[in-house]
């Protein structure tokens, strides 16, 4: 019998180590997602619980006790809200979509703040509307139930998204990783400064690298795009790539 493991903000704070999944049954728990909302009486707060076995998510539970909403999913058995089946929307166009994003990372004035601002401006210009729930888990639950069409946020922690990732997928949605652009830019800015040929080649490789598959999504290091379907997820992915490249070109003109 495998011994159960537990991953959460509290366990990581105790060990100071980045958690990793093993084949052991692992519970990934956030006892309060949307803490500021909870403190201020905002109903967008929840408990998020996921179970992974052999590194695969098999159970997802999100419970909002304020409004008595219980989202559940078991791998291969669909997603439910208070025992009623839920599905993502049928929308496949970003210009017709409502997207859930979070802006807390913009407070960090790191060298990549301009990239995050560029993405936000792109969402404002292209999407039908933007929502800010203040809870990653609730944002994913809203994608699953069709209340919003898509969700994009990074960086995150595994306990923020693990339950929601499975619920979205079981509701018919797609979850992929935004990784690639930010890492590539941080490590390879000097390549841009050599010559146009290298710059163009690098941009092409960067775009190719960004299109990771759903199977490559790493719930332990989540940078998340969740959408009603694969078509919409890939459109967001391409928008991020194009927008990040535009931001990097602006950086180069300032050097």
TrEMBL record:
Pathway: Polyol metabolism; myo-inositol biosynthesis; myo-inositol from D-glucose 6-phosphate: step 2/2. Belongs to the inositol monophosphatase superfamily. It catalyses: a myo-inositol phosphate + H2O = myo-inositol + phosphate. GO terms for molecular function: inositol monophosphate 1-phosphatase activity; metal ion binding. GO terms for biological process: inositol biosynthetic process; phosphatidylinositol phosphate biosynthetic process; signal transduction. Its EC number is 3.1.3.25. The keyword Magnesium applies. It comes from Frieseomelitta varia. It holds the Pfam family Inositol_P. Its cofactor is Mg(2+). SUPFAM superfamilies: Carbohydrate phosphatase. Mg(2+) binds at residues 9, 30, 32-33, 160. This is Inositol-1-monophosphatase. Keywords: Hydrolase, Magnesium, Metal-binding. CDD domains: IMPase (cd01639).
